[in-house]
Amino acid sequence: MRIVIGGASGLIGTALVQELRAQDHHVRKLARRASSDGDISWDPDTGKLDAAQLNGIDALIHLSGESVASGRWTAAKKKAIRESRVKSTQLLAKALTSTENPPKTWLCASAVGWYGDRGNTWLDEDTAAGEGFLASVCKEWEAATRPAADAGIRVVNMRFSVVLSADGGAFKTMMTAFKLGAGGIIGSGEQYVSWITVDDAVRAIMYALANPYISGPMNVATPNPVTNRELTKSLGAALHRPTILPMPAFLARAAFGEMADEMFLASTRVRPKKLADAGFAFESPILYEALHKILG
C-alpha cells in the first residue's frame, strides 16, 4: 500500500513506520522540514500543503499533535495543544476532499481524553463525550475529520490511551521518577488508567488499516484498565523500587495545575469494544506482564 503519515517522528509514528516498511508498504512522511526526497512538505499553521501529493495514495495516517504532558497548561500551551490537532486535521480534511483520487482510508489520532473523568463507569465508543479541556479538544479533533467521512472516505478516529514504552512518552518520564525512588500513588489511587503497549498500539493501527469494516471512533486500549494504585505497585515491583511516597491531590494540583485534574486524577475506564468485536487479539493485555516485557 502507498501510505502517508503525519507525526511519523513521534513515539507511535516511529514504531509504525518501521512496521509498515517491514511489511513492504511504501511510506511517505508529512514533514515541516523535509529530510528526504520522499517527504511531503506541509505547515498546518500557515495552511501549506499541496493536495496533489495525496492524490492516488491508499491511506493517510495522522498522529501528530503537541505533547499534553510536557509543561504546565498555560493559556499558550493549551492553545498549542488544541490548534496542533484541530488545525492540522482540518487542513488534511480540506486536502482530501479537494483531491481527484483521495485515499479510501484515513486513520486519525484522538484520545481517551474524549470521555473525561467518569469514575468507575465502563466506557466504550458509544459513550458520549465528557467534560473538561481534553474532552473539548477531542470533540473538535474528531469533528475536523467529518468532511472526509461525508465525502465517502473511511475515517477511523483512534482514541489512544496511555502508551507504555521505554523509548519515550509520559511513561518514560514516570519510570525515571520510580527509578529515583520517587514513585507513589497520586490522589486516592482509585482512579482508573487505560493503557496499551506501543507494540499493541501499532498492531491495532495495522489491524484497522486492513479491516474495511472498522470506522468511526475506536478505543486503542487494552481490555484491562487498572487503578493508579495498581499501576504504581506494578511498576514499582517491575523496577524493584519502593512506592512509599504518595502525592495527595492538593500537591498534584499545586505542582501541575489543571493538568493534574485531567491527566493524573481523572478516572477513565475504557473498553476497546470496536477492536474486540472485530476480532483483534492483544499480545500484552495484562499490565504486570506487559511491564516485564517492556523492561526486558
Q: What is the CA-based Rg, rounded? A: 19 Å
Q: How large is the share of residues in beta strands?
A: 15-25%
Could you name the CATH class?
A: Alpha Beta
Biggest sheet, spatial arrangement of strands: 4-3-2-1-5-6-8-12
Question: Can you walk through the features of this model?
Answer:
There is one protein chain. The chain is an alpha/beta fold. The chain has one domain (2-294): 3-Layer(aba) Sandwich (Rossmann fold), CATH 3.40.50.720. The chain has 11 helices and 14 strands. The strands form 4 sheets. The protein has an 8-stranded mixed β-sheet with strand order 4-3-2-1-5-6-8-12, sandwiched between helices. Helix 2 (75-97) packs parallel to helix 3, helix 7 (228-239) packs parallel to helix 11 and helix 8 (249-256) packs across helix 9. The mean pLDDT is 93.
Could you provide a short overview of the structure?
This protein has 296 residues and is α/β, with parallel strands linked by helices. Helices cover 39% and strands 18% of the residues.
